[in-house]
Amino acid sequence: MVLVVFVSRTFSQSTVGEILESGKKKHEKGTLEAAIKDYNEAIEMDSKNPDAYYFRGNANFDLAKYRDAINDYTLVLDLKSDYKDALFNRANAWYELGNYESAIADFTKSIAIEAEYADDWLNRGNCYFKAGRYQEALRDFNKGLELNDSNPDGYYDRGNTWYNLKNFDAAVNDYTKAITLQDGTFDFYFNRALAYFSLELDEKACADLTKAEELGDSQAKEYIRELCK
Q1: Closest CA to 209 of 197, 199, 200
Q2: Average pLDDT over residues 102-118
């Protein structure tokens, strides 16, 4: 009797793993609803498997069902409180819903588990920025870029923070670094143009607006018409 139970449990665990792998492959192909069906089946077979809820949460996130994703990540964390990826992804879901304080709380917990992941700091910095807490945002962007100094978005976001703190020279420096790392993004040029205007460097600003327009920024055209003669 004991032997039969043991064999049955081993088979069940193997089957759950296979179903999760099937769901992940469907997710990778973009068939998210089909992936969720697999994850649901896995959960029915093993309701204590945190990975099943985690992967279903990821599928819901990619479907922009952020509250459903949050619910799934919360179930993960109820089962395994130190599941870092679930904390990180729940934080991003809170961010998408505009609940920046909840996102900050989750990123903070994620950082407490492992503090050397640059995206934790950069993403929490974005939350602080959205909440208008610019000094805290600056601190996080500094740390994130210390951990990963090749992230163009990190420099762009820190540039925006400097801009809001009215340190336009520092903003220009960060936008320039972002452009150096990833040329071809019109936001980088457009925002650097605004910083140049604040420094009364209109010629440089207009050159950046022209470049932004060339890259597809429709808003830049309006600024050129009004500010560049």
Answers
A1: 197
A2: 97
